[in-house]
Structure formats: structure tokens, C-alpha cells
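Predict structure. Input: House-cleaning noncanonical NTP pyrophosphatase (MazG superfamily), 108 residues.
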Amino acid sequence: MPIHNKLVRDRIPEIIEKTGKNFSTKILAHDEYIQELRKKSYEELEEYMNAGNDEDALEELADLLEIIHALIECHGARFEHVEEIRKEKAEKRGGFKERIYLLEVEDE
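Output follows.
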């Protein structure tokens, strides 16, 4: 039996069960859960980086967004609160829409 040892989406056990395969799971403690969400974010980001087309890229971005939603809840907040923070930062420092690439800044 292959060993996965990774965080999976909530319905994966149900999906595996429908195939008739045996499997085992456990429920993570809060700290373990955050740690595994962080690991999963790297995994999904790597998959996004390796996406070969827009459709695959959007699939991976959706996975990243799902992880972000879960992490926000872990930190006791709501997505709307994080969106407010994002907007404030964008207002003060701008976003990334203008594609500005900083080359260098003169030392004092």
C-alpha cells in the first residue's frame, strides 16, 4: 500500500472509499494542520509554476486559494478581512498590474 502522509481535501476519503480500496487517515491537531497547510501551499505553488497552459494554471491557483482560505480560518479571520488588508496595502504601495521590475536602487 503506497504511503502518502499528506494533507488531502475533505472528500478524498469518500472518493477512495467508493473505489473499494482500504486506506487510513487521522485528524491533525491545530498546529500540525497549519504546518501541513503550509507544506501543501508549496506543493500547489510548485504545480502552478510547472503549469503548461492557462487552464492548468487556473486549476492550481484555485487549489492555492482553497489553502489560503483554510489558513485564514486557522488564524481566526475571515477572507473579507484579509481582502481589506490587501486593498489597504494596494492603496498605499500599489499592486502588481503595471508589471514594474526594479533593477537597482542607488546606495546612500
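Helices lie at 12-18, 30-49, 54-74, 79-93.
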